[in-house]
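Researcher: Quick one. two chains, 651 residues in total.
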Amino acid sequence: MLPAGAERELRLDLFRGLALWLIFIDHLPNNILTWFTFRNYGFSDATEIFIFISGYTAAFVYGRAMLEAGFVIATARILRRVWQIYVAHVFLFTIFLAEISYVAARFDNPLYSEEMGIMDFLKQPDVTIIQALLLRFRPANMDVLPLYIVLMLFLPFIIWLMKWRADVTLALSVVLYALTWQFDLYLSAYPNGFWAFNPFAWQLLFVFGAWCALGGARRMSRILSSPVTMWICGAYLFFAFCVTLTWHLPQLNFLMPKLIEQWMYPITKTDMDVLRFAHFLALAAVTVRLLPKDWPGLKSRWLRPVILCGQHSLEIFCLGVFLAFAGHFVLAEFSGGGVAMHLVVSVAGILIMSGMAWIISWYKHSADKSASRKKGAVGNADMAGGGS
Amino acid sequence: MKSNPAALLGLTVLTGCFVGLLAVAPALAQDAPARTQDAPASCEVPAYLLTTESTLPKVEHAVKSGLPLDILVVGSRSSTIFTSEASAYPARLQAVLKQMLPKAVIDVSVELQIKKTAEEVAVDLVKLVEVKKPTLVIWQTGTYDAMRSIDPEDFRGAVGEGVVALKEAGADVVLMNLQYSPRTETMISASPYLDSMRVVAQQYDTPLFDRFAIMHHWNDSGDFDLFSPTRGLDLARRVHDCIGRALAKFVIEAARVDPAQQN
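Model:
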């Protein structure tokens, strides 16, 4: 399904795999490995990487499908992918519900009688489950897939528009982003509150990814290779690093000018603050520059596990969310949250994710080989595209 | 990657890891409770969690000139223990302060604002202060907002307004944040609310009693097993006793009062 001559872009797989690992680590209680995640060194975090690369790969694969097979067929394939993601989300919700019910039934410490009120939704499972199916009830850590579902739902339209005028599409996306900030657009959630990742804002990253995939990246390469760009990006990344440093070391706070503080804070994740977006762009620009497409390390055995995870991202993402639940559970039940145990759980989780990616890849390449060639190719498109 | 035996080997190794993990877990688990059961909890708090650059001038004045020190705790359900209010931290705070400042007249009262967001509480704060005229208001908040996932920005605004209103009404303010509650960590996302309170405290130069970090420290150091599913009141009482002590130290430190001089 990939364009003739073009090899699979391993850098995308590498960074998406890395993002999946980091999202898993970020979902566990803080531990030593948390210090290796991006969010401690700048404004943006793994979620940005994940959404951008998902937009890129989805547009790449389905954009090609639209060119070859037409709008209807491509849309049908995208919708099937949306359905898969939706089912995955519901599956995760079921596991979450089981975990919560278990805790609610067993845990009755009077110290936490207030916090236990969060389980009140269990008293009306009818409402809760319907709201979950409508994507309005989304417990902590389960916010990314609903965002992804909504973005994918609009993908046929986005690609169609891009085929007409890519730059206009990107401009429209920026306008929607600006309107979101201007008029405070949001989607409400159940029982109250709002979507933790506002799709009206986050679409910008997804559309930008699609724009890059459909030729934007090539057109930008002149700008990207200019040393001026590198200097600006480097300076901005350094600035972000310094700012984040003051969060971790409050003693340094006096160094932050009050004016900048007032202008800058809060840096919201919900609406994907411009500073976050800019941070992601700078990070991406520097990475693309430092890590050439044909870097031999991409084929090395050591990076293989990350790349494999990135290639099967929907499955591995879901597994990661599940493992984060399971990890919490293991920590709570067995160790009282000891430091060594934290590390063991994190590392075991990453090993399991890599192992699973390996098995899935084995299925695809060996077990399913007997399937007809054509069928295999279609399945392949979904794998790469959904990106999941 | 294509070879079948390699994949099977991988699967075997992974299963091994997981089984190993489960086998190790109970072994590790055995030490933790052993440390926590006996002893009336040393529950020491590292000094950095009890120091603050912000001050409590009204408290300082009251203590130094022998005026009565009226403290009002405004808080949610985690500011009390149902059926055992006398062992909750506000009562413990009063007892410990009396020990530390034997000459002072100290009165701690509690105003529970259950199932109310910071915004809803902030509206009533001024009324409460006008009635009771406290020297110091300890405002414990954030838990209910986190549970309802109120927009952190709205939360921050509400806490800020509340603090300003209290100060204008003539009271010193100490902010107290959420409890560390490991069992509900996957369900309640505390960090935006912790951050918001930190920002407000800094913005209005108000001492922040970091209950979250303190309880986290106790859990990590083995003073308390906060994962415990116990139904009994004992753990809650001991934790509240320790919070009361730490809070007393924090208030005295922030008011820049030297207990030794009081005797």
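The radius of gyration of chain B is 22 Å.
Researcher: Thanks, that's what I needed.
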